[in-house]
Design brief:
This protein is α+β, with helices and mostly antiparallel strands. It has three helices and five strands; from the N terminus they run ααβββββα. The protein has a domain at 69-116: SH3 type barrels, CATH 2.30.30. Strand 2 (80-86) and strand 3 (90-96) form a beta hairpin. The chain starts with a helix and ends with a helix. The model has no long low-confidence stretch (mean pLDDT 81).
């Protein structure tokens, strides 16, 4: 029986490795070291997304500022029309050539300026 107790005592003898201090682990920066790559990827992804949004917004603002008479446009509601007059906050559009129907819309209601390659050939 004494040999069994000696064997158990030797098996549970203190090791040379330091015992962990605190409940979270031995290294206070272990959390940041393990999650730093994930945080870095998220930051880069957010930066790329915000950059593309700002480029798109800049392109849209430039398109609205370059509106001029006789441009073919499409509104966000799907109306295809020709620009008659450009004012500060609104645009006057001609919807129907035959009955001369005109509508006024906010400038931000213009979705895109339609570029038609056949239009210059017809106007000559």
């Amino acid at each position: 029986m004494i040999t069994l107790l000696n064997l158990l005592a030797q098996a549970t003898a203190p090791s040379s490795a330091p015992a962990p201090t605190g409940g979270g682990g031995s290294d206070p920066l272990a959390f940041w070291r393990s999650f730093f790559p994930l945080i870095l990827v998220l930051v880069v992804f957010w930066w790329i997304m915000s950059r593309s949004r700002s480029k798109e917004r800049r392109r849209f603002e430039q398109m609205l500022n370059s509106l001029k008479r006789n441009d073919r446009v499409q509104t966000v509601g799907g109306i295809l029309a020709t620009v008659v007059d450009v004012r500060e906050g609104e645009v006057v559009l001609k919807v129907d050539e035959a009955s001369n129907v005109k509508i006024r819309v906010n400038r931000s209601a213009i979705k895109e300026v339609l570029r038609d390659t056949a239009a210059p050939a017809e106007s000559k």
